[in-house]
Amino acid sequence: MNPAQPGLPAATDITAMHDRLLAHPGWPKEQAPAMAGDVWHWLQANHRYNSLLWAEEDLARRTTVADAEIAANKRAIDAYNQARNDATERVDEGLLVALGLVDAASARTDAPVSRAPPGARLSSETAGSMIDRLSIMALKIHAMREQTERGDVDEGHRAASRVRLERLRQQRQDLAQCLDTLLADAAAGRAYFKVYRQFKMYNDPRFNPVLVKERQGT
């Protein structure tokens, strides 16, 4: 855990969870045992939806299947992307409540009330969005590692993949350090972030103008 604030996740614990889940048999179709704590539940959910989204994105690039199958992939991508964003928002809510930086009663509303300390700097990127990026980095690292182990390609492909794998690992390490810094600064009153709502209108039949017209029969 982050030594600056008991109860906050450390980046090393989060990245270890990401890697452990990717190695879990049946993941992501079969859920792994949930970790204790509301924030950890949503951290795991975010990673699962990113993993499902990743698989659907690969399937959507197929060129030898019927259009109906690609359409099904695209609809699944929309659903998983929405669920991924929802989980990211739940992570931010939980972290901000733990930090005392949001009014707990308003945290799940469309207008969470921020409780920023005087003089604290505002981070435009939230801790949840950084964790979401760490999840995607874990998927990239997992996929690139597989490229280094392929037997159906030449050594040039594997060598280039090893170089990219090391670059991805460095990028993840940099991002993890930035996350720890943000949480430590937030715990110390030097920084804060907010719960930002994505309001993805294209997934909402009340707001997507095309879906509204379909419902109205116009």
Molecular structure report:
There is one protein chain. This protein is mainly α. Helix content is 60%, strand content 2%. It has one domain. The chain has six helices and two strands, in the order αααβααβα. A two-stranded parallel ribbon has the order 1-2. α2 crosses α4. The protein is globular and about 60 Å long.
What integer value in Å does the Rg equal? 20 Å
Low-confidence stretches: none
Elements, N to C (H/E) = HHHEHHEH
- Please tell me the total number of domains: 1
* Continuous helix count: 6
Q: What percentage of residues falls in helices of 4 or more residues?
A: 55-70%
In short:
The chain has helices spanning 11-22, 38-59, 67-99, 127-148, 155-187, 209-216, and strands at 121-122, 191-192. It is mainly α and 218 residues long. Strands 1-2 form a two-stranded parallel ribbon.
What would the keywords be for this entry?
mainly alpha
